[in-house]
């Protein structure tokens, strides 16, 4: 069963979806895993890799184990942190599941294992509810975003196959319901490239703008480029585009963001002096507002 894209699209950034929509999303996730599994190694989305009990630590609660895991992680004992977090995750603690997912996705103190990361993130999605815990909202949104990324590219050698349509569903849900800026950026990229959804530059600009306003530098860069050049029928706003490109350039971090600097340099060099001056004036205004 495929998730209804039209139903998901009706969820605005400020609105919560109905319970029926949540049921559809989670059922779609479970269905995707079952349909894509190899018969000899089928895994249900609700049956995960066993989590060690870590009973020797004698944790009295998942919260205590989580605190111990965070403390040990910050102290540099990542193996100890993983053991504590695994206990909390075994009790269904969302933050512990999310942290373990990130650790396995990045090979941070544990062997790199995207499938384990996928399954930890899936457990968060499985357990999410309409009402939700505000403290876990960011964690849940991030989990749906991570699932979208895995569905987009697939996980080689596993039952998780590339599925851009499913990736769209995950990004759209995380972007609309949780307002996750990474999901908003990824959703915009799908609309820009026509990947998993019909290409729509205006929708791409809309989602880039939502992420850009939250300080997402790649979104700021691509939105700025679209506005400077009026790409895909998006109304040309050269000065505003230069402002976004400058903010993106100022927030660029390391070599992974070299493309942002290159995009800024290209557009700034092609801009008129009047547009540059107007952009600098607006940037001074933005800076003065931030300092208040």
From TrEMBL:
<dbReference type="InterPro" id="IPR006597">
    <property type="entry name" value="Sel1-like"/>
</dbReference>
<dbReference type="InterPro" id="IPR050767">
    <property type="entry name" value="Sel1_AlgK"/>
</dbReference>
<feature type="signal peptide">
    <location>
        <begin position="1"/>
        <end position="42"/>
    </location>
</feature>
<dbReference type="InterPro" id="IPR011990">
    <property type="entry name" value="TPR-like_helical_dom_sf"/>
</dbReference>
<keyword id="KW-0732">Signal</keyword>
<dbReference type="Pfam" id="PF08238">
    <property type="entry name" value="Sel1"/>
</dbReference>
<protein>
    <submittedName>
        <fullName>TPR repeat protein</fullName>
    </submittedName>
</protein>
């Amino acid at each position: 069963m495929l998730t209804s894209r039209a139903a998901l699209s009706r969820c605005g950034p400020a609105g919560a979806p109905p319970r029926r929509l949540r049921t559809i999303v989670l059922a779609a996730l479970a269905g995707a895993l079952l349909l894509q599994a190899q018969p000899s190694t089928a895994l249900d989305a609700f049956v995960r890799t066993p989590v060690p009990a870590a009973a020797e630590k004698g944790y009295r609660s998942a919260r205590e184990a989580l605190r111990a895991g965070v403390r040990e992680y910050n102290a540099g004992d990542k193996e100890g942190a993983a053991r504590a977090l695994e206990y909390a995750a075994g009790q269904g603690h969302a933050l512990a599941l999310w942290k373990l997912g990130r650790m396995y996705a990045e090979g941070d103190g544990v062997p790199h294992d995207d499938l384990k990361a996928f399954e930890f993130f899936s457990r968060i999605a499985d357990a999410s509810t309409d009402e939700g815990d505000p403290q876990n909202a960011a964690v849940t949104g991030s989990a749906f975003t991570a699932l979208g990324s895995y569905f987009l590219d697939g996980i080689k050698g596993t039952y998780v196959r590339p599925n851009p349509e499913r990736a769209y569903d995950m990004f759209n849900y995380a972007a609309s319901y949780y307002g996750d800026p990474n999901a908003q950026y990824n959703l915009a990229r799908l609309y820009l490239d026509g990947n998993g959804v019909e290409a729509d530059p205006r929708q791409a600009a809309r989602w880039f703008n939502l992420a850009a306003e939250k300080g997402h530098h790649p979104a700021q860069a691509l939105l700025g480029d679209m506005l400077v050049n009026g790409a895909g029928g998006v109304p040309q706003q050269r000065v505003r585009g230069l402002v976004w490109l400058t903010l993106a350039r100022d927030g660029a971090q390391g070599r992974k963001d070299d493309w942002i600097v290159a995009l800024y340099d290209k557009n700034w060099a092609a801009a008129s002096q009047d547009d540059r001056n107007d952009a600098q004036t607006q940037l001074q205004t933005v800076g003065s507002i931030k300092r208040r």
